C-alpha cells in the first residue's frame, strides 16, 4: 500500500507539531500549513489523502476552505477532518453538513485524530496477502530496535509503540497479527495491556507474548492468568522469541474471516448532554483522559440533531427535568436507539426511573469521574460484544444460506441432467413412434383407401345403394385418418429438432404458399395482399409450416364469403416485427381465442369447416420454438386476425 499523505492546516505551531509527530509516528507523510493562503496553495499542488483543517484561521474560515476543497476535481474523495475550539452543536452541524467527514473539538486527543483518519481511509486492517504484522510495545527504544532487527529478516512486518496506552491505540488502528509487550512499563504494565485486549471484541483473539525480567514461578502464573499466550524471559536468547512467536501465530491462524468490528481502544466519540455547563466541562475532561472525542450538548433537541448527522459510541445524559423525556426520544429512533446511554444523577433512588426510561446504566455524581469512565467503557464494550455476536450469527447464517444454495443448485443440476437424459430417451421413443406412424399406419390406410376406391369404381359387380354408401364412408374415414396422421407428424417435427436459423425473404415464401393453396381449389377466387420486402430471421422450414396452416385456415374460413380478402403483413420495428394474417371470414366467438391452440379443439363443427384440429397447435409450437408469441383476435362473422413474432437470436 502507498504511504498516505496528510495536510495539516492550523495557525498554532504547537498543534501543527503535535499532529505532525502523531501522524508521522503512524506512518503518514505530513504537509504543514499555518494560513488559509498556504492551504490554498497546497490545494493547487494536491497529492494528499487527508486534510485536517482548523476552523478559525487568521485569514480564512476552515469551513469555506472545506467547501473549496470539495469543489475541486478529486476533492470529494479526500478524507477531511475539521478541528475547532467552537463547542456549540450548531457549529459542528454546520461543518458536517458542509461535507466534513469528521469534526473534532479542541482540546483534542492526537491519537483519536490519527486513528479516526486511518478509519476513514479504510486502512485499519492489514491486507490478508501482506506479511504477518507484529506490534512491539516497550518503553526501551534499544530493545524495540533489537526486536525489529530480529524479526524483519524473518519476513515479519514490525510496528512499535513506546507505552501501553499507545500500544492499545496502535493495536486498535493497525490490527496486528501478534503483539510482543514488555511486562513493566511506565503507565499501564504489560499484563494490563493484555487484559484490556482480551476485553476488546476486536482484539481479544490477537496472540500476545509477554516479556519479563522476572525469574520466579509466581510471575509466570500472573502473566498467563492475565491472558498471555506465551511469555519470554529477557535474559533468554532472543531466538526463543522467534520460536514462540511462530508457535502462537501458527496456532491462531485458523480463524473465521469475519468482518472486523470497531476496537474498544480505537477512536471513540461520546456525546454528553446536560444543562449544567460546569458538569459538561467536567464530563469532557474526564472522558478525554481515555482518548475519547467528547461532544457537548446542553439540550435534547441539539443532541438529536447531532445524532442524526453523526453517530457516537456512547451518550452520557445528566439527570434534570427533561432528561427522562430526552432518553425516551433517543431510544425511540431506529439505529440511534441502540447507542449505549448512561444517565448520571445525585440520588440512588433515580436508578429505577432512569432504567425504565430506556437508559442502559446509571451512575451517581458522588461516585466520581473514575466510576463514570468505567461505566462508559463497560457499556461500549458490551455494545461491541453484542455487535460482534450479531455479525458472527449473520455471517454464519449467510454462509449456511450460501451452502444451502450451492446444495440446491447441485441437486437442481443433477435433476436437470436426469430429466435431460429422460427427455432424450423419450425423444428417441417419439422418433421411433413417428417412424412407425409414417410407415406402419400409412401403409394400411393407403390399402383401405385404395380398395375402397376400387370397389366404388367396379363395373362388373356393381354395388347396391346401401353397400356403396358404406364403402364411401370407409373411404372418407380413411382419408380423414390419413390427414390426421400427416398433421400429427407435422406437429412432431415442429416440436423437436434443431432450428436452422437464417435470414430469408418471407414475402416470397408467402406467395409460394399462397400458390400451393390456390392450386388445391382453383375454382375459388380470393383477394390476397402481401406486404413487400417482408423478411424473417428464423427456420424457413418451420416458418413455411406456420404460413401453410394460417393461410389454409384463412382460405377455409372465408369459403362462405362473397368477396374473400386475406391480408399478410407486419408492424413494429424492422429488427423484431410483428406479423399478421387477417381475413374477413367466419371468425370465432370473442373470448375463445386461447382455446384455438389446444390440440383437437374446435370452435366450429367439422361438417361446416372440416379439419383435424391440429394445425393451430402446430403453429403455436413452431412459434414457441423461435421464442416468439402468438395470439388471435376475432368475432363471429367478422373475420379473424392471427398475430405472431419470430424474435431474432440475441
UniProtKB/TrEMBL annotation:
Residues 436-650 form the Histidine kinase domain. InterPro entries: BphY/WalK/GraS-like, CheY-like_superfamily, HATPase_C_sf, HATPase_dom, His_kinase_dom, HisK_dim/P_dom, HisK_dim/P_sf, Sig_transdc_His_kin-like_C. SUPFAM superfamilies: ATPase domain of HSP90 chaperone/DNA topoisomerase II/histidine kinase (SSF55874), CheY-like (SSF52172), Homodimeric domain of signal transducing histidine kinase (SSF47384). It is found in: Cell membrane. Its main location: membrane. Residues 5-121, 133-249, 269-380 form the Response regulatory domain. The modification 4-aspartylphosphate is found at residues 54, 182. Its EC number is 2.7.13.3. This is Sensor-like histidine kinase SenX3. The lineage of its organism: Bacteria, Bacillati, Actinomycetota, Actinomycetes, Micromonosporales.
Amino acid at each position: 500500500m502507498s504511504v498516505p499523505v496528510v495536510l495539516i492546516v492550523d495557525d498554532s505551531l504547537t498543534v501543527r507539531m503535535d499532529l505532525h509527530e502523531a501522524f508521522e509516528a503512524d506512518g503518514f507523510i505530513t504537509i504543514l500549513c499555518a494560513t488559509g493562503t498556504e492551504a490554498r496553495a497546497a490545494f493547487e499542488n494536491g497529492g494528499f489523502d487527508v486534510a485536517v483543517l482548523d476552523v478559525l484561521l487568521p485569514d480564512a474560515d476552515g469551513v469555506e476552505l472545506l467547501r473549496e476543497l470539495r469543489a475541486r476535481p478529486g476533492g470529494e474523495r479526500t478524507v477531511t477532518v475539521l478541528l475547532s475550539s467552537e463547542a456549540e452543536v450548531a457549529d459542528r452541524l454546520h461543518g458536517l453538513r458542509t461535507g466534513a467527514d469528521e469534526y473534532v473539538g479542541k482540546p483534542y486527543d492526537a491519537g483519536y485524530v490519527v486513528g479516526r483518519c486511518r478509519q476513514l481511509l479504510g486502512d485499519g486492517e492489514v491486507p490478508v496477502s501482506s506479511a504477518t504484522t507484529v506490534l512491539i510495545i516497550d518503553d526501551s527504544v534499544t530493545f524495540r530496535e533489537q526486536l525489529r532487527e530480529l524479526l524483519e529478516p524473518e519476513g515479519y512486518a514490525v510496528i512499535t509503540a513506546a507505552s501501553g496506552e499507545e500500544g492499545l491505540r496502535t493495536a486498535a488502528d493497525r490490527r496486528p497479527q501478534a503483539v510482543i509487550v514488555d511486562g513493566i512499563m511506565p503507565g499501564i504494565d504489560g499484563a494490563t495491556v493484555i487484559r484490556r485486549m482480551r476485553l476488546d471484541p476486536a482484539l481479544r483473539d490477537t496472540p500476545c507474548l509477554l516479556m519479563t525480567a522476572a525469574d520466579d514461578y509466581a510471575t509466570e502464573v500472573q502473566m498467563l492468568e492475565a491472558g498471555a499466550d506465551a511469555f519470554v524471559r529477557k535474559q533468554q536468547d532472543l531466538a526463543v522469541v522467534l520460536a514462540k512467536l511462530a508457535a502462537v501465530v501458527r496456532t491462531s491462524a485458523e480463524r473465521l474471516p469475519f468482518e472486523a468490528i470497531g476496537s474498544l481502544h480505537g477512536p471513540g466519540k461520546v456525546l454528553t448532554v446536560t444543562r449544567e455547563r460546569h458538569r459538561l466541562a467536567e464530563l469532557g475532561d474526564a472522558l478525554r483522559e481515555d482518548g475519547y472525542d467528547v461532544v457537548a450538548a446542553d439540550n435534547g433537541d441539539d443532541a438529536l440533531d447531532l445524532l442524526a448527522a453523526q453517530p457516537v459510541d456512547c451518550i452520557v445524559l445528566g439527570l434534570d427535568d427533561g432528561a427522562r423525556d430526552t432518553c425516551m426520544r433517543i431510544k425511540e429512533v431506529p439505529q440511534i436507539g441502540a447507542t449505549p446511554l448512561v444517565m448520571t444523577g445525585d440520588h440512588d433512588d433515580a436508578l429505577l426511573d432512569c432504567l425504565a426510561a430506556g437508559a442502559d446504566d446509571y451512575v451517581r455524581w458522588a461516585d466520581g469521574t473514575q466510576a463514570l469512565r468505567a461505566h462508559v467503557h463497560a457499556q461500549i464494550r458490551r455494545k461491541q460484544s453484542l455487535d460482534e455476536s450479531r455479525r458472527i450469527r449473520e455471517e454464519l447464517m449467510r454462509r449456511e444460506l450460501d451452502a444451502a444454495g450451492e446444495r440446491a443448485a447441485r441437486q437442481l443440476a443433477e435433476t436437470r441432467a436426469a430429466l435431460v437424459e429422460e427427455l432424450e430417451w423419450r425423444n428417441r421413443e417419439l422418433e421411433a413412434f413417428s417412424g412407425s406412424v409414417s410407415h406402419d399406419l400409412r401403409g394400411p390406410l393407403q390399402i383401405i383407401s385404395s380398395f375402397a376406391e376400387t370397389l366404388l369404381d367396379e363395373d362388373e359387380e356393381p354395388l347396391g345403394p346401401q353397400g356403396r354408401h358404406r364403402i364411401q364412408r370407409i373411404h372418407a374415414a380413411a382419408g380423414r385418418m390419413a390427414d390426421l396422421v400427416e398433421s400429427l407428424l407435422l406437429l412432431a417435427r415442429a416440436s423437436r429438432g434443431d432450428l436452422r436459423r437464417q435470414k430469408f425473404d418471407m414475402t416470397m415464401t408467402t406467395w409460394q404458399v399462397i400458390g400451393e393453396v390456390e392450386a388445391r381449389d382453383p375454382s375459388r377466387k380470393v383477394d390476397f395482399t402481401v406486404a413487400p420486402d417482408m423478411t424473417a430471421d428464423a427456420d424457413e422450414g418451420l416458418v413455411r409450416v406456420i404460413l401453410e396452416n394460417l393461410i389454409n385456415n384463412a382460405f377455409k374460413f372465408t369459403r362462405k364469403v362473397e368477396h374473400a380478402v386475406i391480408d399478410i403483413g407486419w408492424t413494429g420495428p424492422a429488427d423484431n416485427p410483428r406479423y399478421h394474417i387477417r381475413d374477413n371470414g367466419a371468425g370465432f366467438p370473442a373470448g375463445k381465442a386461447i382455446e384455438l391452440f389446444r390440440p383437437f379443439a374446435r370452435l366450429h363443427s367439422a361438417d361446416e369447416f372440416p379439419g383435424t384440429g391440429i394445425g393451430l397447435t402446430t403453429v403455436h409450437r413452431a412459434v414457441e420454438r423461435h421464442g416468439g408469441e402468438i395470439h388471435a383476435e376475432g368475432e363471429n362473422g367478422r373475420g379473424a386476425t392471427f398475430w405472431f413474432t419470430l424474435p431474432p437470436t440475441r
